[in-house]
Amino acid sequence: MRDALNKAREQIAAFLHAESPEDIFFTSDGTESANLAIKGVAYANQRRGNHIVVSEIEHPSVLQSLEFLEKQGFHLHPREGGPGGLPGSRGGSGGRDR
Ligand SMILES: Cc1ncc(COP(=O)(O)O)c(C=O)c1O
Q1: pLDDT value at position 45?
Q2: Beta-ladder partners of 87
Q3: pTM
């Protein structure tokens, strides 16, 4: 089983041009992935800033991870989701900063 996981990790790392197979993490579902990625990036970059722009049409698992970070002192800047779901792509702030 471990051999299969390591082989899959190597193949995915090669496909994504990751620096190392050790950079590939498997999670149980999308919710866990969003939680890990959002909090990981936020905490890893906390010294560079604590403001996060977010599209209001994100999946609840994304929004709930961000609401957790807001309670930890991060500042959220919601934006309307435009074409392609890009924040602010409809022009203007749309959403309210908080
Ligand atoms: C962007 C995004 N994040 C998270 C999820 C939740 O995935 P899961 O049901 O695997 O936890 C979904 C499901 O549609 C999704 O679209």
Answers
A1: 96
A2: 81
A3: 0.78
Ligand 1: residue whose CA is nearest its atom 1: 59
Of all atoms in ligand 1, which is nearest to the CA of residue 61? 4
Residues 55-81 have a mean pLDDT of: 92
In angstroms, the Cα distances linking 79 to 39, 64, 74, 95 are: 20, 16, 16, 4
We find that the CATH architecture of domain 2-85 is 3-Layer(aba) Sandwich (3.40)
Map out the domains of the chain as residue ranges. Answer: 2-85
- Pocket probe for ligand 1: among 32, 36, 59, 65, the residue whose CB has the most ligand atoms within 8 Å is 59
The rounded Å distance from CA 6 to ligand 1 centre is: 25
